[in-house]
Amino acid sequence: MTETNICGRRIRTARQRLGLTQHELAQRVQVTKQNITQLEQGQRQPRPDRLRALAQHLGVSADYLLGLTEEGS
């Protein structure tokens, strides 16, 4: 994983902190497990509506996921 994939790393960390699998998070955000895998691996970036949903379900801010802040909430 590269430094440019801060969003993916933060999604993975927040998901794991909550004890969620990729499949469980995907169901909550209404995307495929493959989509979560691609996000976490930095193969894609979330659309704004998905970023909002991810942040809400992970209990962090969208700014945190994007690497704009160091604090999650």
Describe the protein in words.
There is one protein chain. 60% of the residues lie in helices and 0% in strands. It contains five helices and no strands. It has helices spanning 6-17, 22-29, 33-40, 48-58, 62-66. The chain is globular, with a radius of gyration of 11 Å. The N and C termini lie far apart (24 Å).
Rg result: 11 Å
Main sheet record = none
Q: Looking at the structure, what is the overall shape?
A: globular
Q: What's the total number of strands? A: 0
The class by helix and strand makeup works out as mainly alpha
Strand residues, percent: under 5%
Order of helices and strands: HHHHH
Q: Quick summary of this structure?
A:
With 73 residues, the protein is mainly alpha-helical. The chain has helices at 6-17, 22-29, 33-40, 48-58, 62-66.
Provide tags for this entry:
single chain; 434 Repressor (Amino-terminal Domain); globular
SSE arrangement:
Elements: H1 6-17, H2 22-29, H3 33-40, H4 48-58, H5 62-66
Helix pairs in contact: 2-3
